[in-house]
Design brief:
CATH class of the largest domain: Mainly Beta
Number of domains: 2
Distance between the termini: 27 Å
CATH topology of the largest domain: Barwin-like endoglucanases
Organism: Sphingomonas metalli
CATH superfamily of the largest domain: RlpA-like domain
Shape: globular
Pfam families: 3D (PF06725), MltA (PF03562)
Number of helices: 12
Strand content: 15-25%
Structural class: alpha+beta
Mean pLDDT: 85
Number of strands: 18
Largest sheet: 7 strands, mixed
Order of helices and strands: HEHEHHHEEEEEEEHEHEEHHHEEEEEHEH
GO cellular component, one term: outer membrane
Low-confidence stretches: 1-43, 432-443
Protein name: peptidoglycan lytic exotransglycosylase
Keywords: Cell wall biogenesis/degradation, Lyase
């Protein structure tokens, strides 16, 4: 992902339900002046700002904010090896004919556009799932831009497969909007930082083949690489000299949750929108404060929702600050001149894009979710990843921006059956058949 552009409320908060965008205000956590440390400045190097106005979002799924149930298609019984770490190792079964799936014309057209946008990366990337090769997608990618009936396109070029037991769980994420200003002023005093100049990324594979795929982040202190500053140190002014300030927010709670989501919009006093997205992170481990609050019985029954947690943080500002600081992870942003991007580097689309584990889903592939919620059911395209989105048939649905997106994404918790759409011929090449498991790709 980059690590990931956008993160899920529900995924990061251990499955808690969230239903409302953040509002209100609380005293700001402004890095105080310290001896030898300057207060945060407007920027180290003044950024060039890309301001946009709101744009209308297409309602692809008839989202209303109300939960409308549906009956998922049944998954086929399957034996899944306990140690399976990829789709190929989990086994694949033939799914239903795509023409038989309840895909609406609007969903199909939106998914085809997202699939076509993902095609360059889909054909270029090594598929970690072990199911496909780049060349397998060439025919479908070439046909994606030809127009015509989008439902017929998917039926002609794809076959549905069930990965492992097919039992799916889906949460939701969205692009939050917070209040901010380009300049520090009364009421806008919480810095939204860009990448610090002294943050260093180290690819450990350059030092040992045994460390392939492992990286660390830190800073140089004298002649030693040490961990980078944690959340507390940053909020107390440790990076005031080294990090640009992209904007000044009105509410530290909003900024904290903006970091959980990984991208969002800053609404300026004149109504303009500054879009920001994930750039990097300080290298410290993430701690979900929702789990801490449950363990410590800080939430009353019925309060385990986004608005309940935010209300508690605002009602207990000192304890809230200390609690948030237990999450030592800190996200740095960059300005975006367009929509937020997913792990593939392409724009993600509300009600179309979904985050998945690339070890079980080829990034860029379409997925049909048959869920116990009508708004989650339908065709999606895997264009993103997430730190909490791990394993087979685990998905995080993206809902775009705005109050409705916040409501639906915050409360999303859907279960059902997932069918991965792969190029026709994939099952035959893998040597898999209906009822077989543990398929292994052939070269």
């Amino acid at each position: 992902m980059r690590i990931r552009v956008v993160w899920s409320w529900a995924a990061r908060w251990g499955g808690l339900s969230f239903a409302l965008a953040i509002g209100g205000c609380v005293g700001g956590f402004v890095p105080p002046a310290r001896p030898g440390v300057e207060a945060p400045r407007a920027s180290v190097e003044r950024p060039r700002h890309h301001l946009v106005r709101d744009e209308a979002a297409q309602d692809i799924r008839g989202a209303t904010g109300q939960i409308v149930g549906s009956v998922p298609l049944p998954a086929q019984p399957a034996f899944v090896p306990a140690a399976a770490t990829s789709a190929a190792a989990s086994g694949v079964l033939a799914g239903p004919p795509i023409a038989s799936l309840p895909i609406t014309a609007v969903q199909a057209e939106a998914a085809r556009a997202a699939f076509a946008r993902s095609c360059p990366g889909l054909m270029r990337r090594t598929d970690q799932s072990g199911l496909t090769r780049g060349a397998d997608w060439q025919g479908a990618c070439a046909a994606a831009g030809a127009g015509g009936d989008a439902r017929a396109f998917f039926a002609q070029w794809f076959e549905a497969v069930q990965v492992g037991d097919g039992k799916a769980f889906a949460t939701g994420y969205y692009e939050p909007e917070i209040r901010g200003s380009l300049d520090r002023r009364s009421g806008y005093e919480v810095p939204i930082y860009g990448r610090p100049t002294d943050l260093i990324d180290v690819d450990l594979a350059q030092f040992s083949d045994d460390l392939k795929g492992k990286k660390v982040r830190g800073r140089v202190s004298g002649t030693t690489l040490v961990p980078y500053y944690d959340r507390t140190q940053i909020e107390e002014g440790a990076i005031a000299r080294t990090a640009p300030v992209l904007a000044w927010a009105a509410d530290p709670v909003e900024v904290f949750f903006l970091q959980i989501q990984g991208s969002g919009r800053v609404r300026l006093p004149d109504g303009a929108i500054l879009r920001i997205g994930y750039d990097t992170q300080n290298g410290r481990s993430y701690t979900g404060i929702g789990s801490l609050m449950r363990q410590r019985n800080l939430l009353a029954p019925g309060q385990a929702s986004m608005q309940g947690i935010v209300a508690w943080l605002r009602a207990n500002p000192d304890q809230g600050r200390a609690l948030m600081r237990e999450n030592k992870s800190f996200v740095f942003f960059r300005e975006l001149d367009g929509p937020p991007q997913g792990a593939m580097g392409y724009a993600v689309t509300g009600q179309v894009s979904v985050a998945a584990d690339p070890k079980f889903v080829p990034l860029g592939a379409p997925i049909f979710l048959s869920a116990d919620r009508a708004d989650a059911t339908g065709l999606w395209v895997a264009q993103d990843t997430g730190g909490a989105i791990k394993g087979a048939n685990r998905f995080d649905t993206f809902w775009g921006a705005g109050p409705m997106a916040a409501t639906v994404a915050g409360g999303m918790s859907a279960r059902g059956t997932a069918f991965l759409l792969v190029p026709i011929g994939t099952l035959a090449r893998l040597g898999a058949s209906q009822g077989a498991a543990g398929a292994t790709p052939t070269p």
